[in-house]
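ESCALATION

Customer reports they have been waiting on this structure for their group meeting. Please prioritize. Original submission:
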Amino acid sequence: MLTRYAYTIGLLTALVLMPTGAVLARATHPQLGVGSQYDTSHVYVDPDKVDSFVSSFLGTFGGTSTKQVVATVTPTPSSTSSQLLQTPVGTVSLFGFKTPIPYPFGYERTGYLVTDMDQAIAAARAAGASVVVGVFPDPIGRDVVVQWPGGVNMQLYWHTSKPAYAAFETIPENRVYVSPDVVSNFVKAFLAFSQGKVVSDDKKASGIEIGRPDDTFRRIRIESVFGKMTVLVTDGHLPFPYGHETTGYQVSDLAATLDKAKANGATVLINAYSSDKRQAAMVEFPGGYVAEIHSLSSQ
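Update from on-call: job pushed to the front of the queue and completed.
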């Protein structure tokens, strides 16, 4: 009995004296992200709008598209055109479904490349996410759709052959709208999974950023290996088009970019406004995809 007691005390003492980082290293999963350039915004448009969206989006931001293919990218029978639009400010996975879209596809906002699918699923579940579409094969790898607290759906993907994409000139923002009831759980879960950090938490951000200039709201900015995220905490009283955008794109010259967007068939829904040391606007591209576009202020 004395020997067992002495062993227990010794073990507890060793854990207390062990550097904190060493204890945390055993308690956390390995980094599963690859890089922000592998974070793709999922965009669904009608088949007859695919080409006009591609022309408008690339005409606005520059970049190139992979060859369009027709494939099944869901675990149940379906058919869609698929292509990857790669620009200096963000990447789009573009789908033009030729069949009805199987549920819940179309609700996931983004795809994150992970180094190990099984570990990623385990880590997401451990962090508080639920798996809403179990792992399934696609033509070039494996996929799963997870849902974070607050109903935020994301697709995780793994490629059989590791892709090699150029780094972005500016990293896009994943824009997430959640309620005050779930924001703490959402942030805690996503940080645990991504091993990211909160870079700002403004509880009195200007309501002009959500179309309510006379009000304030809470805005949290997060950065991780997966890229940037802006969490907008609201009561859901959002005028159109706020809440429809899933991605914010940073450009060097907002006015020039908006001119390009209009010249290439896009519509400026919200004219440029100033807030949080940036100029921002909301744009709708052919096919209905809404994006926030911003540039940093010179001050």
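Sent to customer with the following note: The two ends are 69 Å apart (CA to CA).
Escalation resolved.
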